User: Fold these one by one.
Assistant:
Number 1:
Amino acid sequence: MYIGELASLTGATPKAIRHYEKLGLLPVAKRKGNYRIYEEIDVQSVKMIRLAQAVGFSLSELYDLSALKYKNNRFPVEVAQQLIQKKNQQIIEQKKALNRLQEDLKQLEDEIIQTYITHKIPA
């Protein structure tokens, strides 16, 4: 299939697909003249890349996973699970950091109210 059909099947743009190929997330496509030719495995790869990006993975985080998939001609489920667990831990840490920030904002608000109301300092 040509790049336009791959784009249509995956929701990715041809530009994004060429970018994935340039980064090594997709193997260099076979050619028929000047046209890139893709296979069904590429459809699944682009779908996986787009879904992974949607849940917070960067393209660089997906490189090893994609490389293993094409090298072994099978999806490395164990590696994917490790990446997902690592991303989940990062999200937990981000949530903790956001909660601390929210607490700090509340403390700042309380201090401002206390200072300006108690001491009747003009704003």
Number 2:
Amino acid sequence: MGIGIDTLAPLAFIIVFAYTVFGLTGFGSTITAMPMLVLVIPLRMAVPLMLVFDLASGLLLGLKNRRFIERREALRLIPFMLGGMAVGVLALVKAPERMLLVILGLFILGYAAWSLLVRGKPQPLAGAWAAPFGAVGGIFTALFGAGGPFYTIYLTRRLPDKLTLRATISGVLFFSAVARLLLFSGAGLYQQESLPLLAAVLLPCALGGLYLGNRLHQRLPAERIKQAIWVVLIAGGASLVLRNL
């Protein structure tokens, strides 16, 4: 795949937009970007590309509250997450891309609907639920970089303290990003033509979007922003399903 201005310009816009969303809300960079990225580049290139930016932003922000990580809960999730990621990488490499894009679209629609409709105090979960949430989250993490909601649902119902919850989610996500980097490298996904160059050229766009989102965070109403993001996600998810059925 050659890199031309007709490819770089839309990619740069998508990356800046996705990481502005992340800077504004603290979530959603990959799930926002992916429906648009796959219009320009293949899914098998888009997923490892976004991982580079997620790792860079994670290192930049740092695990500031890492001493507050609840290691027991993180260690419950991680073995099942790694198993799910192994399955997800195999599917990413072997499965037909159209089928994967339909699954991504349905996942985005389901996640947006759940986020809009579910209200009230989360009900506690038993520790045994780490197995299904970790495994399914690992599969979606490897396939689309979008397993975070599964880990968050589980940990929100296990950790009542907000600081501990945020630190533990950040720690699990950072660990999953490092594990994905190793799995993707082993599967040869970073040997794709133009991918390293694309990552290097677009990294400033991701960091610029993150900076912009952080600057705007205090100036814009959080609830309105989230509502707008759900509209974008629903449109993107529906478009993926309709285009690939």
Number 3:
Amino acid sequence: MENIKEHLTEYIILFIALFIFLVLFIVFRFDRSAQTIISGAGSIFYILWGIIHHAIRERISRTIVWEYVLFGLLIFLLFYTVLSF
């Protein structure tokens, strides 16, 4: 819990951005190409947020970068697959 209090600003930015992407995803619910772009932008934001978050705390490593890249890519591919049908 102390970790969240210490990084509150960074987590607020993350949750606000993810909320905005969710709202945009709902607003464009009938446009699959827009949803694909929104999910891609959300994944890229998440990857960059994670890398910047750890770089600020000077805990960045290749493993952490790969974790964020692979997880962001996985989420995007899941959305892309679902939106392709």
